[in-house]
Design brief:
Elements: E1 23-24, H1 29-32, E2 47-54, H2 58-70, E3 76-79, E4 95-97, H3 104-111, H4 113-136, E5 148-152, H5 155-170, E6 179-182, H6 183-189, E7 197-201, E8 204-206, H7 209-222, E9 226-228, E10 233-237, E11 240-243, E12 246-255, E13 272-281, H8 286-292, E14 299-302, E15 309-312, E16 318-322, H9 341-354, E17 369-379, E18 386-390, E19 395-399, H10 405-421, H11 445-466, H12 474-483
Parallel strand pairs: 1-17, 2-3, 2-12, 3-9, 5-14, 12-19
Antiparallel strand pairs: 4-8, 5-7, 6-7, 10-11, 11-12, 13-16, 13-17, 14-15, 15-16, 18-19
Helix pairs in contact: 2-7, 2-10, 3-4, 4-10, 11-12
The structure holds flavin-adenine dinucleotide (FAD).
Length: about 475
C-alpha cells in the first residue's frame, strides 16, 4: 500500500492567475501517471535463500529473472528498501539504447579490439532481449523502437557530432547503424530551434521506465522469486545480507544498488551517486506538435558536455532531462525525487530554447511544465561499468553504468546470473567482467571534484553556445582531464 510520504506532492494552487508551479518529486512523473505500486510485505525475520539480491531495480530484477529462468528450483530473494523501481529504474529518461559506459579505446588497449566489438554486439542483443521479454511477459511499457536522434545545437556541437560519426565508422558502424543528418533532414524528423544538423541511429527504443520495472518485478514474482520490500540492507558480508528486518543467510549475495551503493556499510566511496533531473510538460496540443514535428517519437539528445536527453511520451508530452545539481555532499541521495527549484528553471529554459513553441504565442497556447523529479545513477572512478562475482566469498556486484543503465542492467543482470551459476558464455567473457575501479576520494575532495567537473562542463556548454567557432571549449578539456577521462 502506498504511504502518504510516497504520494506525489500536489502542485500548489495557482495564485493570481499565474501558472501553478510544477509538481516536484513524488518519485517520478512515471508513477504520477500510473500510481505508486502497492508495497509487497517486508522480510519476516531471519531467513535463508540460495541467492540474496540487494536492490529491486532493473539490475537486481534482471539478475533474478535470469537466475530463475535458468534454474527454476533456485531459492532467490530480492531485498528492497522501498518498492521495486523506486530508484533510477523508475525515474529515468526511458532510453533503451545500445550505449554503454566504458571508454572503448582504453578497453581495446587492455583487451583488444574484438573484445570491444563483442561488448557492442552484446548491448544490441540485450536491447532486443528487453523487447522480447516485454512481449513474452505481456509488459506494456509504451515501447516505440524508432531509434535516437542527436541534434547539434551550435558549431562546436556540430564539430563534435562529425567527429563522433567518424569515430563510429572506425569502429565499423556503417550507415545502417548511424546516419549523419543535415539541418533539413533533422527538421524532417524534429524541429529543434537553431540546430545545425544531427544524427540518427536505429539502436534505441523509448520505454516508460516505471511500467517496465513494475512489469519485470511481476514477471520475476511469477517465476517464484520472493520479493521483500520496505526492507533495508545495512551490510553485506560473505554468506549473509544483514537487514533492518533480520539476517538472510545465502551462499551468494549480490549487490545491485547502483547510485545507492554508498548506503551499505563500507561502500561509501565505491560509486559516486550522480544526480540527474527531468521535467515533463503538459500534453501538447496538436497544433504545437505540428510546429515541432517529432511524429516518429525517436529519443532525442544533443551534443552538449552536460548532455540533454528527451522523449516524446506516449500521452503526447515532452520529458527532458539533464544534470541539475550533480552531487550532494557525503554521497547523499534525494528525498522521493525532489529536485532543486534552480534545476527546474534551468531545464525549463533548455526546453524553451529547443522548442520555443512551448512558450506560447503566434496562435499557440503556452504549454507548462507539470512535473519535475530527480534520481541518482552510479559513477565508478574510472567511468567504466562493472560486473563481478568473487567465488570464494560468494559476493557479487553489478552497476556503475553512468547514465546508460536501462539496457546495460539487462546485460549485467544476465551476466551476474551466469557468473552465479558458473556458466561460461560470450557475456561472461566481456571485458568489463571482473573489473574493479579504484575508490573515490574522501570528502570534501569528492564533493569539490564532482561539482567542479560539472561546473566546468556547463561553463564550456555556455561558451560554445555563444561562440561562432567550432572548437571545443578549453574548459571541457580541463573537466575531462580533472575527471580522469
Ligand atoms: C534521472 C535519470 C535518468 C536516466 N535516464 C536513463 C536513460 O534514459 N537511459 C539509460 O540507459 N539510463 C538512464 N539512467 C540510468 C539508469 O536508470 C540506471 O543506471 C539504472 O536504472 C540502474 O538500475 P539499478 O537497478 O542498478 O539501480 P536502481 O534502479 O537505482 O535500483 C536500486 C534499488 O535499491 C534500493 N535500495 C537502495 N538502498 C538500499 C538498501 N540499503 N537496501 C535495499 N535496497 C536498497 C533502491 O530503493 C532501488 O530500488 C537514468 C538515471 C536517472 C537517475
Amino acid at each position: 500500500m502506498s504511504t502518504p510520504a510516497d504520494r506525489p506532492a500536489p502542485a500548489a494552487a495557482s495564485a493570481a492567475g499565474r501558472p501553478a508551479p510544477p509538481r516536484n518529486g513524488g518519485v517520478s512523473f512515471w508513477y504520477a501517471s500510473t500510481s505508486l505500486p502497492r508495497r509487497r510485505p517486508p522480510l519476516d525475520g531471519d531467513g535463508r535463500a540460495d541467492v540474496a539480491i540487494v536492490g529491486g531495480g532493473f539490475t537486481g530484477l534482471w539478475t533474478a529473472y535470469h537466475l530463475k529462468r535458468a534454474q527454476p528450483d533456485l531459492d532467490v530473494v530480492v531485498l528492497e528498501r522501498e518498492f521495486c523501481g523506486f530508484g533510477a529504474s523508475g525515474r529515468n529518461g526511458g532510453w533503451l539504447s545500445d550505449h554503454f559506459t566504458a571508454p572503448r579505446e582504453r578497453l581495446a588497449a587492455e583487451h583488444g579490439r574484438e573484445a570491444v566489438l563483442a561488448l557492442q554486439r552484446a548491448m544490441r542483443a540485450a536491447l532486443a532481449e528487453v523487447l522480447e521479454v516485454c512481449a513474452r511477459e505481456s509488459i506494456d511499457a509504451d515501447v516505440v523502437h524508432h531509434g535516437v536522434v542527436q541534434a547539434a545545437r551550435n558549431p562546436a556541437q556540430a564539430a563534435r557530432l562529425r567527429a563522433h560519426v567518424a569515430q563510429e565508422r572506425r569502429w565499423g558502424h556503417g550507415e545502417d547503424d548511424l546516419v549523419e543528418l543535415s539541418a533539413d533532414e533533422l527538421a524532417e524528423r524534429v524541429r529543434v530551434a537553431g540546430a545545425l544538423g544531427g544524427s540518427w541511429s536505429p539502436h534505441c527504443a523509448r520505454v516508460q521506465p516505471a511500467k517496465l520495472v513494475q512489469g519485470l518485478a511481476a514477471a520475476v514474482e511469477r517465476l517464484g522469486v520472493r520479493i521483500c520490500e520496505s526492507t533495508t540492507v545495512r551490510e553485506v558480508v560473505p554468506g549473509a545480507a544483514r537487514t533492518d528486518r533480520g539476517v538472510v543467510r545465502a551462499e551468494t549475495v549480490l549487490t545491485c544498488l547502483e547510485g545507492f551503493t554508498a548506503s551499505l556499510k563500507g561502500q561509501r566511496r565505491t560509486w559516486l551517486p550522480l544526480n540527474s533531473a527531468i521535467v515533463v510538460t503538459a500534453p501538447l496540443p496538436a497544433a504545437t506538435w505540428e510546429r515541432i514535428g517529432w511524429a516518429g517519437e525517436e529519443l532525442l539528445g544533443d551534443m552538449a558536455h552536460a548532455y540533454t536527453y528527451a522523449q516524446r511520451t506516449a500521452d503526447g508530452r515532452i520529458a527532458l532531462g539533464g544534470r541539475g545539481v550533480p552531487y550532494r555532499f557525503g554521497s547523499r541521495t534525494d528525498r522521493l525525487g525532489q529536485t532543486q527549484r534552480a534545476t527546474i528553471d534551468q531545464l525549463t529554459a533548455l526546453l524553451h530554447d529547443c522548442f520555443p513553441a512551448l512558450r506560447g504565442g503566434d496562435g499557440l497556447p503556452a504549454v507548462p511544465v507539470e512535473h519535475a523529479w530527480c534520481g541518482v545513477l552510479g559513477v565508478p572512478r574510472d567511468w567504466s561499468a562493472t560486473v563481478r562475482l568473487d567465488r570464494a566469498s560468494g559476493l557479487g556486484i553489478a552497476g556503475g553504468y553512468v547514465g546508460n543503465g536501462v539496457t546495460t542492467s539487462n546485460l549485467m543482470g544476465r551476466t551476474l546470473a551466469e557468473l552465479t551459476l558458473g556458466v561460461d558464455s560470450e557475456r561472461t567473457a566481456l571485458p568489463w567482467v571482473g573489473r574493479a575501479a579504484r575508490r573515490w576520494e574522501p570528502e570534501p575532495l569528492r564533493w569539490i571534484g564532482a561539482n567542479l567537473v560539472y561546473a566546468l562542463y556547463r561553463a564550456a556548454d555556455r561558451r560554445e553556445a555563444a561562440a561562432a567557432s567550432p572548437r571545443t571549449s578549453v574548459l571541457a578539456k580541463a573537466a575531462a582531464a580533472l575527471a580522469g577521462m
